[in-house]
Amino acid sequence: MGKKKKNKNEFNAIPPYAQIEEKLAYSEASKGLKSHTKWLYVAFRLKYKGDNARDITFTEKEAKRITDWRTFRADYRKLIERGFIDLIKRGGFYKEKHIFGLSNRWKKYGTKDFVKVDIDKLFPKIFKRK
Fold first, then answer.
1. What is the pLDDT of residues 14-34, one digit of tens each?
2. What are phi and psi for residue 13, nearest 5 degrees?
3. What is the three-class DSSP state of 21?
4. Which residues share a beta bridge with 35?
5. Helix or strand holding residue 88 (H, E)
6. Which CATH architecture has domain 22-127?
7. What letter does residue 57 receive in the DSSP assignment?
8. Distance between CA 106 and CA 66 in Å, rounded?
9. Which residues of 84-123 are buried (b: 16+ CB within 10 A; e: fewer)?
10. Which sequence spans correspond to the domains of the chain?
11. Which pLDDT belongs to residue 85?
12. How remote is the C-alpha of 25 from its chain's centroid?
């Protein structure tokens, strides 16, 4: 009798992991996004724990682990514009965190039914780059 081989699947997903739908990855909304913007979306999905779809936060320290602060800010704005995430509560003053939520608006991106969010109304001129 020979030894029985163990089936070692080195790619078994061990939580935390992020599930991304194929239709999202190849959607109209994801076309033209930079790779670091897509990776930021993966980071948002990693923060999703099943019951906090509308309560996802990033500390400045966590954001800097992903990318520099300016890129992080530009990328989450692009994700909001394309409908992947929504801004639930704006922070900013006195070190308050922004609260984000996952969104399905991306499914209608590029159609007349897409609900466009005006970034300029979310972030007043005081926060804009010069």
1. 677 888 899 999 999 999 999
2. -75, 125
3. coil
4. none
5. strand 85-89
6. Orthogonal Bundle (1.10)
7. -
8. 23
9. bbbbeeeeeeeeeebbbbbbebbbebeeeebeebeeeeeb
10. 22-127
11. 95
12. 13
